[in-house]
Write a structure and sequence with these properties.
The chain is mainly α and 214 residues long. 62% of the residues lie in helices and 0% in strands. The protein has 2 domains: 97 residues, Helix-hairpin-Helix base-excision DNA repair enzymes (C-terminal) (Endonuclease Iii, domain 2, Orthogonal Bundle), CATH 1.10.1670; 101 residues, Endonuclease III, domain 1.
Amino acid sequence: MKDIRFILDRLKETFGEKKREKPFRCLISTMLSQRTRDENTKRASERLFSVYSSAYQLSHTSIDEIEKLIRPAGMPKNKAKNIIKTAGILVEKYNGKVPDTLEELISLPGVGRKTANIVLERAFDKPAISVDVHVHRISNRIGIVNTRNPYHTEKELERCIPKKRWGDVNYLFVQFGRMICKPRNPRCDICPFFKMCDYGMKKTSHRDMDTLRK
């Protein structure tokens, strides 16, 4: 078993604490982030929130108008439709506020487990592990888990990480995945976990064998 607490502590020394986010902005921005790059999410969020800042405002807006603003995030028609529907539910059922339970969040249009868990841990500081592509990739690469899909990764991480540390996982692994443990050409040469990483050690072994063959 890998020392997950050592990994989290080392990453926190490097990347610091995550910042608390406002629930409504966190929810909508995370919905926009689905299947797009971070820079596209940032641009679309800034454009949207520069005009609309509340669930009430969004619920009284046309899909066409939202589409224009969020186009940089991709899939504008589908995302605009879900955002307006979600805003309407927040107004009608929750007095314009974002609910703070997994069950209520995943009942909203366009909100799955990943989005819901991000909102719980970043906006409400509740224990939750949001498994995106970075968390799934890094957890399996290092050898913390051996899973085939994000749901099983989430459950395995919940089992091996103390609950009080669940909220650290997504933020820290995302930063680490962007800078060092990249999808392609990971920076194993500067990785602090190289000697305990299954992927890194295999990569080194293959490189050594290639050298011997030359």
